[in-house]
Design brief:
Helices cover 56% and strands 0% of the residues. By secondary structure, it is mainly α.
Length: 111
């Protein structure tokens, strides 16, 4: 069994990525994730959990400034953040359980 050349594999992967971005045919497998267009009412999510803006921001890693902009409708969350907010809305226990596993303090779920 021959030894892997990790450095060469990384270089090859990077070249495939560049070729793909340049529109050249590659063997790269592409998976597209569709993100629902539904708007997440961040204020409602936060209030449902019984958290202040500061508590919500601290618990889930957002800045209070950004949270306020979302709640005021001045800004919309980026797509990855949108997904996190949907998870917090739909499965807060799961999100908190995962954050606790990472050693993060989590807010109590008020249900």
């Amino acid at each position: 069994m021959s030894e892997r050349n990790i450095g060469q594999e990384i270089i090859q992967g990077l070249q495939e990525a560049v070729d793909y971005m340049d529109g050249k045919p590659t063997g790269v497998r592409v998976t597209r994730v569709q993100i629902p267009n539904e708007r997440v009412d961040v204020r409602a999510v936060r209030q449902e959990l019984g958290l202040t803006q500061q508590e919500f921001a601290d618990a889930y890693g957002f800045s209070v400034h950004t949270l306020r902009k979302w709640e005021q409708g001045v800004r919309e969350p980026e797509k990855p953040t949108h997904i996190l907010l949907m998870l917090i809305r739909d499965m807060p226990e799961l999100v908190n359980q995962y954050l606790a596993k990472l050693g993060r303090d989590t807010p109590p779920i008020k249900a």
